[in-house]
Amino acid sequence: MKKTIDFFKWLSILPIIGLVAVYLFWLTTAPMAFFNGDETVGNFIAGLVLFSIFTLLSVGVNALNKRRGLPFWIFISLLFSVFVINIFYLMTFYPQVTAVQKVGVYKYYISSSLDWDVHGLTAFYKCKKWSLTCYRLYSSYGLSSAELFVDKTNSKVSLFNFDELLVTDGEPPKYYTGVSEQLGSKLYILSWDWIEDSDCGGYSCRKYIYTLNVCNLDYTDCDSLPIRYTETYDITPYWVTNEVTKEISLYDEDEKGDIIFTYGEHPRCYANGCEILQESTSN
Predict the structure, then answer these.
(1) Do 53 and 122 fall into the same domain?
(2) What pLDDT digit, counting tens, does each position of 257-281 carry?
(3) 241, 137, 124: which is closest to 189 by C-alpha?
(4) d(Cα 34, Cα 44) in Å, to the nearest integer?
(5) CA–CA gap between residue 186 and residue 262 (Å, rounded)
């Protein structure tokens, strides 16, 4: 009986070795933004806490058994229960890397994981090769068909969801509303940014800046055009094109909503907050 107990004591070390290997693999292969408020980092740390509890319990139970002769079934039950909890946690919260692209000295990832409310969160990461820390460029709960696209001409990587452009990495990254419209041989889409309005005095002091962009039909070579619109809330872009005049008009929500601007040979603003810039702000 003593030999059997000693065998299971040594056998208890194997799960510890296995869990160490799993967490090392998680650390080195799954992207995490340690200094970017990344939920995946919290999942990783919580897993390490569970692993530490299992390790300390294994050591403690072995020591207690030597001193007081802890019953064999209690020894096995405690270790097995905590080990099962560790495995269940890993099966639930281990991130799934669904896409990877290498561009220069960087790797770009799409990774999906669960948050603490067990909601699926998908994130877009930029990681320098051979580095354990990454920068999270974008994350959302609604990215069910996320994919990466590499513009080989400009060496830029973009995130799409259901063929809608969401973000292109750059200096700085450019974020898009996702809704584009074709006019002739070009695509038109809004990029957006926000600033804090220190003079607003209200609950939300953000101002959203929307800039018109023109791209090739494959979303390459996207450049900013000299017209933009500033608003205090998220707009829902709705485009109306005129093939005769070669103009595109932006509405908020639908064609019955407020027209914001028309862009063509002679750009025109209609809404407060719209402005025509003197020269292009192309990137």
Answers:
(1) no
(2) 789 999 999 999 999 999 999 754 4
(3) 241
(4) 10
(5) 16
Residues 89 and 100 in one domain: no
- Are 80 and 58 contacting, i.e. CB atoms less than 8 angstroms apart? no
This prediction's pTM: 0.81
Q: What is the CA radius of gyration of the chain?
A: 27
95 three-state secondary structure: coil
Label residue 74 left, alpha or beta by phi (over 0 means left) and psi (-120 to 50 means alpha): alpha
Instruction: Report the length, in residues, of the chain.
Output: 283
Q: Please check whether residues 138 and 188 belong to one and the same domain.
A: no
Domain carrying residue 63: 2-93
pLDDT at 173: 93
CB 241 within 8 A of CB 181: yes
CB 242 within 8 A of CB 181: no
Domain boundary among 170, 197, 230: 170
Contact between 123 and 106 under an 8 Å Cβ cutoff? The reply is no
Parallel, antiparallel, or unpaired: how do β-strands 274-276 and 259-263 relate?
unpaired
- Are 60 and 68 contacting, i.e. CB atoms less than 8 angstroms apart? no
Q: How many domains does the chain have?
A: 3
- Exposed e or buried b per residue across 79-102, where buried means at least 16 C-beta atoms within 10 angstroms of its C-beta: beebbeebeebbeebbbeeeeeee
Identify whether residues 190 and 277 lie together within a single domain: yes
Residue that finishes a domain, picked among 49, 76, 93: 93
